[in-house]
Automatic annotation (TrEMBL):
WD repeats lie at residues 17-58, 59-100, 101-142, 143-174, 185-225, 226-267. Pfam families: WD40 (PF00400). It comes from Xenopus tropicalis. Keywords: Repeat, WD repeat. The keyword Disulfide bond does not apply. It comes from the Eukaryota. This is WD repeat domain 38. InterPro entries: WD40/YVTN_repeat-like_dom_sf, WD40_PAC1, WD40_repeat_CS, WD40_repeat_dom_sf, WD40_rpt. Transmembrane segments: none annotated.
Length: 298
């Protein structure tokens, strides 16, 4: 599918979704690629038809900037986190809010579902990550250890590990069902802004130090140190097959990296604003970015 990524992106068309009135902080495609989810500093979540670009629903409820959003892997739910210190879980079909989760004491910067859609992880400025049970909205576990704000979090695709990235310059890898930290990954020289796992089990982290680190989370070793961005790295994501890693940054570019050798295979330029968010579609045919002051393009 990604045998010649440079050739694909040279001929790709771009579609813009423009309705938000603030910075777009996060974006996500539903597992079936029919829906697009975006959230913004305007305190709103937008639900779109991905193919037509039609805005289906303006989702309101948060009382502060919405920092993160994601679909559950089964496609039935989506979640959002906000500067208002809450996490919300919503039904996709009715856009009904099922749970408002209130145990964070400061802004909640990140939210993500476990691969089986049973659990939700959130993390924020209170330096804690919380694991929630999706069905009843109950708190299952609190992860302590970071010395500064948690900016990002992710589950491994087999659900065994959780990774969190912090303004304390570290990535922590937790065994999902245990209380302690399995590994503390040190190497970044500034705040860690994003983390993600690949299908093969690699862990990537992006930082304000303008680099992306690719790790082996099982032994904590550094596989690649990816340099090229001239501004801090805002977001990263692996393609579904694990062949490509995408990164976006303050330098108004997106970069595509070959996970076999760590080589940058494409630099996507032409974005007029800082690129906050990025996502591959599950089938690998679309790449989505969201920018400051704009809704996403794909």
């Amino acid at each position: 599918m990604w045998k010649n990524p440079s050739e694909y992106f040279a001929t790709a068309t771009v579609k813009y979704f423009e309705r938000h009135k603030g910075e777009v902080n996060s974006c996500a495609l539903s597992p079936d690629c029919h829906l697009l989810l975006t959230c913004s500093d305007d305190s709103r979540i937008h639900l779109w038809e991905a193919k037509s670009g039609t805005l289906k629903q303006k989702v309101t409820g948060h009382t502060g900037p919405v920092k993160s959003c994601c679909f559950s892997p089964d496609g039935l739910l989506f979640a959002s986190s906000s500067h208002d210190c809450t996490v919300r879980i919503w039904k996709v079909d009715t856009v009904e809010c099922l749970h408002v989760l209130r145990d964070h004491s400061k802004s909640v910067e990140t939210v993500c579902f476990s691969p089986d859609s049973r659990y939700l992880l959130s993390g924020g400025w209170d330096c804690t990550a919380i694991l929630w049970e999706v069905q009843n909205g109950q708190k299952r576990k609190v992860y302590h250890g970071h010395r500064d704000a948690i900016q990002c979090g992710a589950f491994s695709l087999n659900g065994s590990y959780i990774a969190t990235g912090s303004w304390d310059y570290t990535v922590r890898v937790w065994i999902a069902q245990n209380k302690g930290t399995d590994k503390i990954l040190e190497g970044h020289k500034s705040n860690v802004s994003c983390v993600c796992f690949s299908i093969s089990g690699m862990l990537a982290s992006g930082s304000w130090d303008k680099t992306v680190c690719v790790w082996n989370p099982r032994n904590g070793s550094l596989i690649f140190l990816l340099k090229g961005h001239s501004g801090w790295v805002r977001n990263i994501t692996f393609s579904r097959d694990g062949i490509l890693l995408a990164s976006t940054g303050n330098d108004k570019t997106a970069r595509l990296w070959d996970c076999e050798n760590g080589r940058c295979v494409k630099v996507l330029k032409g974005m007029m604003e800082v690129v906050h968010a990025c996502a591959f579609s599950p089938d690998g045919t679309l790449f989505l970015t969201g920018a400051m002051g704009l809704s996403p393009s794909c």
